[in-house]
Amino acid sequence: MTLNPLAFPKGVKYLCELCQKPAYMQCTQCRVTYYCCVEHQRADWIGIHEKICQTLMSLRKPQPFLPSHEERKKWADAIAEEKRHMIDLTRTTSRKLLFEGKHEQSVPAAMQSLRFAIEVYGLTSIELVPSYLILGESCIGLGKLSQADEYLAQANWTILKTPNSSKAIQSKLHRNLGLLNAAKGDFPEALRQLADDIYNASEEYGTDDIRTSGGYFHMANVFFRQGKRDIADSLYNQVTDIWHTYLDRIVKCRTQTPPTPRGVGPGAVEKLEDKEEGLDEAQEAEAVQVLNSIYDMQEHQPIYQPLGMAKVCYTLAMLYFVLHDIKKAKEFGRKAVVASDNSADDNFSRNIVEFMKICERIRYVLVSCSALKYNHLNHYTIEKEENYASHIRKQQCQEVT
Amino acid sequence: MTTLLPPINNKNGRSNLPSYAKNVQEDRPRKNGSSRRDKEITEEHQHLQELQRNLTKMEIDNYRNSYKHTLCLEMLREGYHLSFRELFNLVRQQLEEREAAGPESFMWIQTMLVNEHEKLDTIRFFLTQAENAQRAGVYEDVYQSRYELACYFQKTGDKWLVDHFFATCLDTANLVVSDGGKMKAEAHLHVGMALEQNDKNLQAAEHFEAYYKLSKEHKDEWLIQTEEGLCLSFFADACINLCRIYTTISDRLGSEDMEKSLGYLVMAFDKAKESEETRLEGEAAYRLGLEYHKYGNVDTALVHLHNFYDACKRADDKEGMGRACDAIAKAYAKEGRKEESIEYLLQFVQTAEERGMEAEQCRAYHNLGEIYNSVGKYKEAREYFNRAYNTSRAMSDTAALQMNRVQLGIAEAHGMLEMYSTHVVQGDRTCLLRIAEWKSVRNNQFYKPLPVLADAAPQDIASSLNEEESRDGEEVEEAHNAEEEDTVINEQATSHEVEETG
């Protein structure tokens, strides 16, 4: 909706959500966001606005009249809580877009998260650092290195000024600095920063956590570009191993027969779902990106390594299984079977075959269910799906008779 | 607005300066004298700054971070991520163990691995070496590096690190194929040893068995140099280790599970046989014999004990022979064959005397005394108990001393009993006098020949004494015992007092 700035109330200036220039447009749905031009509105819509449009409406409307102090306080708390939630949401979204390689699109979400963080925590808080880091990373992706440098310097300064800042955030900072230096072509410095990243992440999560694996992956890339293939290979293997163990656990957890819940009702069901650990969106995107690039790397190796290949394929298959993309899971599973045919490790190939069987079963269930236009399967474990399928089959029989 | 500000660059000099600045200008020449010194100072400053060049980022980090942090960063930067992982996890493992051990554990006093820079450096050196070799696929070198690390920590006394590195040695050795499993066998041996020291005997036995199996096929090829410069084959070494571990296991099982512990001893004996070490075989046989004896199977026990005896005889091992004789005698005694028992005991006494082993002597005398006592040869019994008593006194072994003293008393009483009862039965004057004498001053005259019964003894004395002396022999013995025990108790009491005052 176009606006005329002259028609604004006196003393009020509406600014563009992205570039802070005088606004000429308004979002017709929430009516609280303004843009300078159509491009910016579109970029914001694709980046983040689509997800937060409704919430923004409630957040930006003026405070209603509340007679008592307690009520005002309660209202403020609720708003702050909501904003904190928004910080999480916007950050995860932008991170996911980053991992998918859409650097341009991730900027609006990162800006939004930074804005919320400033509103909640103030200008100098360490809570702003993740947003700075995301912005820095997207700048690296876009090739604006000096701007990235600025953002990361800001983040670095904030961390230095904050005593006892958490290791997790330090690790992220070092990872981004490492990436920046790698992009600049300063490999020794990049390695130094990435090493610091791995060290800090290990302190926080342990050496074999998926959150540490990112550092290994970037380090491997740097070594690869330096031409040290053997080191890079061993690091890629390490990354694959970490993901493999992690995904294997998730798959086992999902496919095992759940113990018969004692007691009836929603309580029992909740308990079952609690146990399951999952990946958030950003981690999913990271896994897809990391493992696929390792797969490509393996495929283009001058010397074919069946064991490494099999492992990557199997891990990818498990990943797609966890992401409910059964078709791709089967495809990679088949590749893993082919690659592991000649290997001596019986246990490994047996695992793959077992996994393929599970895939078959799931596929059957999915097919039989989709025939009945049942689309909300994704959140159910296999057991439930099977139960549902058998239930449907019974119904069919009854209908036939 | 701008005209009010004084111009910054003034070519004409002082004319345009505001009034307050003029004074400063005039002061200048005066300052010139001291400005030379100023110049010197600034020059010196610059010189010093040149000497102390700017720190690089890395140096700043080194200053800021802990030693371990710097070490890890260096390792990672060079691409040794596996080494980093291992070192990092080791440090963390120790810290977690300390946490788990609770606040009162002595681990809080000891220096942790994090703070021992020399050890960290050593680990780093060898691990990176190992990782290099691993990348190249030379597993022999990996094994060697890890083995050296384990040896290093054996010297410094870090048990848990030794265990860790030996365990990883075994993992590596599993990958080595070129030498037909020699490295694997060695690794199994080391892990077994480490486990044994940690008191995990059953697991240790498993590793020793693996070692045994591997070395069985290469009996003559694989040799190790022992410290004494002797050549020992891996196979024999495996047998010796297995024998030892089985014996320990059976000891631990003890009396809880007789059958199992006996089974382990039999296994130990088999392995000892295979090792072809006479001495070891004999020892195993001896232990097996004792166990059978304990279990009640005397015949089998005797077979094994005789084996041991022969082995000792062949090796001219007097001490072993003594032990064998002792055990054989016991077994015979249990079976009731006292003559054989006495025979072996005499041999035992002889060897013990020859070797001058007092404890063995004492035991031998004691056993002999007991046997004689049970066959009714009180005189010999008394003699041997006396000897036992003297030896134990010479050794100042209180427990043995007290026991022997009581036994000596019993033997004496037994010896006296016969004569005493004849005296009581006969009951004439001389007899009664002797009894009364013994009663009052413990003067033993019972061994003197009895007078022929001529006339009846004076009844008055007899009747007066009869009431007191009408006890039978057993009571005498009891009295004797009681008296002995009294003295014992007194002695103990005094010794306690001495201890307390001391």
From TrEMBL, chain A:
UniProt entry keywords in alphabetical sequence: Metal-binding, Zinc, Zinc-finger
Annotated ranges, domain MYND-type: 16-53
UniProt GO MF annotations: zinc ion binding
Record's protein name: MYND-type domain-containing protein
UniProtKB/TrEMBL annotation, chain B:
One example of a Gene Ontology biological process annotation: cilium movement
One matching Pfam family: TPR_12
SUPFAM superfamilies referenced in this protein's UniProt entry, alphabetically: TPR-like
TPR repeat positions: 362-395
Residues making up the signal peptide according to the UniProt record: none
Compositionally biased residues, Basic and acidic residues: 24-44
InterPro entries: Bac_ResReg_Asp_Phosphatase (IPR051476), TPR-like_helical_dom_sf (IPR011990), TPR_rpt (IPR019734)
Function: Axonemal protein which is implicated in axonemal and/or peri-axonemal structure assembly and regulates flagellum assembly and beating and therefore sperm motility.
Protein name: Tetratricopeptide repeat protein 29
Organism annotation: Pomacea canaliculata
High-level lineage: Eukaryota, Metazoa, Spiralia, Lophotrochozoa, Mollusca
